[in-house]
Amino acid sequence: MRYFLLFICAGVVLLSQCAPYRHNTIPAAAANLPSSFCYLDTVAPSVRVDLKYSGSDNFVGRPIAGYAGTRAVLRKDTAQAIKKAADILAKQGLGLLVWDAYRPACAMSDFRSWSRTKDERMKARFYPNISKQGIYDGKYIGDISEHSWGIAVDITLVDLDSGRELDMGGHHDLLDVSSATESPLVTPGQRANRLKLRDAMAAVGMKNYPTEWWHYYLADPGTLYSYNFELRDDLQSAPH
Hints:
The protein is α+β, with helices and mostly antiparallel strands. It has helices at about 40-45, 75-90, 105-115, 125, 130-135, 190-200, and strands at about 5-10, 10-15, 20-25, 35-40, 50, 75, 95-100, 150-160, 205-210, 215-220, 225. A hairpin with a 6-residue loop joins strand 9 (about 205-210) and strand 10. It is about 25% helix and about 20% strand. It has a single domain (about 5-225), classed as Muramoyl-pentapeptide Carboxypeptidase, domain 2.
């Protein structure tokens, strides 16, 4: 996840940290992917995918609005960057596992609605040391995300031979200070794994959000649009 401050002026949404930004809502029932998007598996088939928000292993504890599929979707340039990172890591006997990629904008509204409820069943596993409001105050999540622009992934390293995840000193969406990429609260080996991931991603133009070791986004994305089409496994490539 990644947090952004929004300023509303004369009906225009301005982004404080990453401009230019434009809001572009694609209908949830759209049958085609936007022309700039693709399924990650068509570009980087070696990259494993386990979309956490399509299931219940997440900080809310249920599937999130807009997640009706299990295939990762990204903007094409971001998918190409992930492929390049996978190629670099393969030479070290390592691979990539994606936990989240494109995220419909409606998912962010779902998170906000959940934050106003009394449901805290996942607190012990995902946000043990902060309140639900603290998730927002700590900038682990906001009302808009780079994921909705198709340029971000939540990602980790796996051993290519066994398929096992490397020990990163914490799981996806552990919303805690120990999840900072360079946190001193993890072991040297766990930190080294985090930095190994960061080095490979930086080499292909992906930047880390330092509060979350798993979150990366395209450092030079150009003009940004927020999308809200439902994530499904049967979307067609847009006609040219």
